[in-house]
Structures are given as structure tokens and as C-alpha cells.
Amino acid sequence: MTAEPAGEGRPGERLQKVLARCGVGSRRVCEELIEAGRVRVNGAVALLGQRIDAERDRVEVDGHALGTASGSVYYLLNKPGGVVTTAADPQGRPTAVALVPRLPRVFPVGRLDADTEGLLLLTNDGGLAHRLTHPSFGVEKEYLAEVQGVPSPHALRRLRQGVELEDGRTAPARVGRVGDRGLRITIHEGRNRQVRRMCEAVGHPVLRLVRTRIGPLADRDLTPGQWRPLAVSEVRALERATGGRPQDGAGRAGGGGRGPGGGDLAPR
Ligand code: URA
User: Fold this and answer.
1) What is the pLDDT of residues 111-143, one digit of tens each?
2) Could you name the CATH architecture of 140-214?
3) Three-class DSSP labels, the chain
């Protein structure tokens, strides 16, 4: 973790970085929200560059809490292709937050590319969101990638061992075949467009990408566009996966209904 002093001897990270990681928007958008006075930390209007303890400090955006232990809600969405995970899209594409209940306000945990389908967690629990997305917690994310061409054993070995990307070598990954052109890839870093860039680097651009697991969370029954609240046991499993403790108040694991079942996240 890039822990640096937060002022009073506490470790901290820049507020805009935490907000961006929790899916509020790009780093630039988050800076603008702070500059506009729309973000508060522990009740006080936040300052640009302020460092916070993402585990403890209470952060609000437009008065909506981002990451309170009590009253937290957790939704698991099967994000369809073409839906963005940022709060708003300049191109006017639909957003993931618009697919789940409007209040209390939730944020996507991490990013999926607009073209990427599959499981996306949305919550107002900023602490858990932080732990699920920060690479130091190493939470696994599993993807099914349909790729161009038929990857050779050598290509698979390279993906497993780590490939050189412009932002550095990727950590070892678990990679298995699913049919000729399908790959099941499990990573725990979460860099921008990581799976697509890894596959491209070994000569097999991704044609379709579906996230099928977030740590202990999987659901083959959610169809694209469907969401459901997490069960309390699932919230606890996420807490365990991130080394955190199950919190009192995590009991209200979402407030909505579950849509019709069916569906399969396997590549077409
Ligand atoms: N890797 C990618 O390339 N894209 C995603 O959306 C997620 C992981």
C-alpha cells in the first residue's frame, strides 16, 4: 500500500486516489469534486491533496456516505457490454449505477471496461471497496476471455509467468484453456485493461471478456443486466478474503429484489 503519513501520524492515501478506486470517477473527476467542495471527510469539506485513512475516515460525496459500516449495501451486478462503470459518461453510455437502486448511493468496486461483461460489485462500503481493489490485498478476479487465434502452450506459459507490459511485468497468473479459443485467467493485480493487454502481448487479442469471479463471489445465474443483494454470508466471505473482520451492521446486505434467473457467463 502506498501508505504515507496522513497528518497526525496515521497512514493515508490521497483522497482523490481513494475516491477514484471506489469508482466515483476518474482521478480528474474526483479532483474536480473535491475542488467544488462536494466531498467531506469526517464532516469537514475536503481539500485537494488531503490524505485519509480509507479504513476509518468517513467520506461523503454530495452528502452520500462512501463507506460506512452500518447501513452498507452490497449489490452484485452482471454488467452487460456497453455499460460504463464510471459515475457518468461524456459519451452518454448507460452506467452501472443506473442499473441498481438509486438510494442509498453506491459506487462500483473497481472498474470494468465498457466492453467487458460480468460480475461487478457495487456498494457504499468504502473500506471494503478499498480492500477489494488495492493490489496489496491480492484479491483474485477471474475472467473468461475469448481470444483471437489458438494460444500455444508457449503463449499460455508466458501468461502464467507474467508478461512485460508498458507499466511493468504482470504478476504470475493462473491460466487454463476453455475450449480452443477460451482462456480462464485469474489475476490479483487489477491494472487498467490488464487481461486485454496481457492477451494482446502474447499475440491473442481478446474478442470477448467476462468477469466470472471476484474473490469468493461467483454467480452463474445472474443474466446480463440483473443484480441481486449479497447475502450476509457473502459479505462476510469478502471480509475474510480481504483480511478484514465481519462488521456488525453488515447484516443488511442490500435492499432490492432478485431478477429472473438463468444465463451463463461462459463465452459465446
Ligand atoms: N482486464 C481487462 O482487460 N478489462 C477489464 O475490464 C477487466 C480486466
Assistant:
1) 999 999 999 999 988 889 999 998 889 999 999
2) 2-Layer Sandwich (3.30)
3) CCCEECCCCCEEEEHHHHHHHCCCCCHHHHHHHHHCCCEEECCEECCCCCEECCCCCCEEECCEEECCCCCCCEEEEEECCCCECCCCCCCCCCEHHHHCCCCCCCEECCCCCCCCEEEEEEECCHHHHHHHHCHHHCCCEEEEEEECCCCCHHHHHHHHHCCEECCEECCCCEEEEECCCEEEEEECCCCCCHHHHHHHHCCCCEEEEEEEEECCECCCCCCCCCEEECCHHHHHHHHHHCCCCCCCCCCCCCCCCCCCCCCCCCCC
